[in-house]
Amino acid sequence: MALIKIKQFSELVGLSVRTLQYYDEIGLLVPENVDDYGHRYYGHHNFTCAFIINSLKQVGMSLKDIESYLSDSTFSIRVFVEEEKKRIEDEISALQRKRSMLENIQIHESQFSLRDPAIIALFSQENLDPLELAKIVELPIDQLVFDLAETSQFMKELDYCRQNQLTIRDPLAKKCGLYWQRVLNSLGESKKELTKVAELNYQVAPHSYGMTGENYCYLKGLVELLASGEENWSGEK
After folding, report:
1. What is the pTM of this model?
2. Which site in 1, 34, 95, 166 is 20 to 30 Å from 21, CA atoms measured?
3. Nearest 5°: phi and psi at 31?
4. Considering the domain boundaries, does residue 97 fall inside one?
5. How far is CA 116 from the centre of its chain?
């Protein structure tokens, strides 16, 4: 196969001239020859390389990983494929949850005011029972009000307690448990119903409320032990 100029090669492989120039600059796809005037010429080896690059880009591989694949014989394409499949599966799951929430909103949004806290019920992944939904809609619910600075401090202290696995006997851990216990006790029965719905959603989207899943489980354990009077829980599952 005779050498061809960059424009012809660009049309054959479906990459722009500027992209080919960039690939040459970073050493990813170097032309077989560059003449004294700086004109690039490509051969059949370049065509094969371009085909590999295009194929790997389509499955999500970065240029850095493609370069490793082409130049490093120890690069594991199998590991990349497994990691990329896992990432795509996670994205699909997240999109399915969002679709489920949007469908709930589409079906029931006419029953809610957009400023009504009860609308959070629509963001649950679960299929809502019409009778339960009707109960929530009819509840007289005020806007939730809380001290943002106090809540932020609580989140930091809770994270510290969980990371250090402090028991309920530790003053700081007990403080966190008592704080959350007061929050739950301050909710009226109507708000408690919404809390149940929110917690269902929290299980599939653990960062929705500014608290990690690990911290949430730890906190629930603290509150349960305070309610039962036990003070020897280690925080471990």
Report:
1. 0.43
2. 1
3. -60, 155
4. yes
5. 27
Give dist(CA 220, CA 211) in Å, integer: 12
CA distances from 20 to 14, 23, 26, 47, 208 (A): 10, 5, 10, 12, 43
Are 124 and 195 a contacting pair, CB within 8 Å?
Answer: no
Torsion of CA 103, 106, 112, 116, to 10 degrees: 60
The pLDDT of 164-173, averaged and rounded, is 93
Query: pLDDT tens, 187-237?
Result: 666 556 556 655 655 555 555 556 677 888 888 889 889 988 765 444 444
User: So what's the pLDDT on residue 177?
Assistant: 92
Based on the fold, state whether residues 123 and 178 are members of the same structural domain: no
Domain of residue 90 covers 77-138
Q: What is the pLDDT of residues 89-145, one digit of tens each?
A: 988 988 887 787 777 777 766 665 555 555 555 555 556 666 665 665 555 545 445
Residue 234: inside a domain: no
Domain co-membership, 212 together with 176: yes
Q: Any idea what the CATH number is for the domain that residue 56 is in?
A: 1.10.1660.10
Q: Is residue 105 part of a domain?
A: yes
Q: Are residues 210 and 167 in the same domain?
A: yes
